[in-house]
Design brief:
Elements (H helix, E strand, L loop, with lengths): L5 E2 L2 H5 L34 E9 L7 E10 H18 L22 H18 L2 E8 H7 L2 H7 L2 H19 L6 E7 L5 H14 L6 E8 L5 H19 L3 H6 L8 E4 L4 H19 L14
Parallel strand pairs: 1-7, 2-5, 4-7, 5-6
Antiparallel strand pairs: 2-3, 3-4
Helix pairs in contact: 2-3, 6-7
């Protein structure tokens, strides 16, 4: 599994300036965003880029690892993936794909199908994914270390470990879209709604969209959705679970399949390092000192989102 992913030093590549944050990142009104009851609303055009995001959690007794993953693709091929994924599930007699349940022979969603049938289904799903998506990205966070190296005030501005992982993931995606010369295309974002801090991610997106900045990702629509009826979010679940399992146990059936062969170069990781929040804190201190100095051109920065 060595070489499964390419670590991205997105702080250097994107060279963003981290901004002083609003303190209301957790405030969110569902009236201001579209919840996504289905995967492809009519306002998602075929030439737009779609990002779907899910999480993987280390559930071992001592584990504190959190993985936030996104599958990125053009909307038209992702529509085809949606149809192909549903057809494979129907053919196998499975209600929905869930990585955590996939090898559990007692899972109700799988209706007792054999291990061989599950093996075949997984291989077919990964094959369709490889044919249709642009790339996958994951951000890895050590939740315990994140809490240890940040203050309550910092977390009130930049969010929980999940929110930090979301921001790191979006920055990684921006770097790759820029490398592929796709950064000028509109982007629609769908986030799995199962995590308690998913609303913080929506808050970051809302803040960025409100500023309507020409820099960074060009946001289209965004919202939350459940993955049971959403094949593309199920694909993101496969990635998040596989990356988390690989880093927790040292191996993963899921990571081996999506990260082997030619496909491995299309999966990118942003590895955890406490130097990342430390760099943000240092930037905040430098900016505060600049404001205090009254130097010509010193202005208060209000941007919260770094992508």
């Amino acid at each position: 599994m060595k070489g499964l992913t390419g670590a991205v030093d997105a702080w250097r590549l994107a060279a963003p300036s981290f901004r002083e944050a609003s303190r209301s990142v957790s405030e969110h009104s569902l009236a201001t965003e579209r919840r996504a009851p289905f995967i492809f609303p009519s306002w998602w055009t075929d030439d737009s880029t779609l990002i779907v995001i899910d999480i993987g959690i280390d559930e071992s007794e001592s584990g504190s690892r959190l993985v936030v993953s996104g599958i990125v693709g053009k909307t038209s091929p992702m529509r085809k993936l949606d149809a192909e994924w549903k057809a494979e599930l129907a053919k196998a007699g499975v209600d929905y794909f869930h990585a955590k349940e996939h090898w559990n022979l007692r899972s109700k969603a799988y209706h007792g199908i054999s291990t061989d049938a599950r093996e075949k289904l997984l291989n077919r799903l990964v094959l369709h994914l490889h044919h249709r998506f642009l790339f996958g990205a994951s951000s890895i966070i050590d939740e315990a270390e994140y809490r240890d190296c940040t203050t309550p005030r910092f977390r009130s501005q930049y969010g929980s470990a999940y929110a930090w992982g979301f921001q790191s993931l979006m920055l990684t995606i921006l770097v790759e879209l820029t490398r592929q010369k796709r950064a000028n295309q509109p982007v629609n974002i769908l986030i799995e709604d199962g995590h308690k801090n998913a609303q913080q991610a929506i808050g970051f997106i809302r803040a960025k969209k409100k500023r309507n900045s020409a820099m960074g990702i060009r946001l289209g629509s965004y919202g939350l959705g459940g993955k049971r009826d959403n094949p593309i979010l199920q694909a993101a679940d496969l990635l998040a679970f596989g990356v988390c399992e690989f880093h927790t146990k040292g191996n993963s059936d899921f990571a081996f399949r999506f990260g082997s062969g030619k496909g491995r170069k299309r999966f990118i990781e942003y590895p955890w390092d406490r130097s990342s929040p430390d760099a943000v804190k240092a930037d905040i201190m430098r900016h505060a000192a600049l404001l205090k100095s009254g130097a010509p051109g010193a202005k208060r920065r209000t941007d919260l989102v770094m992508w």
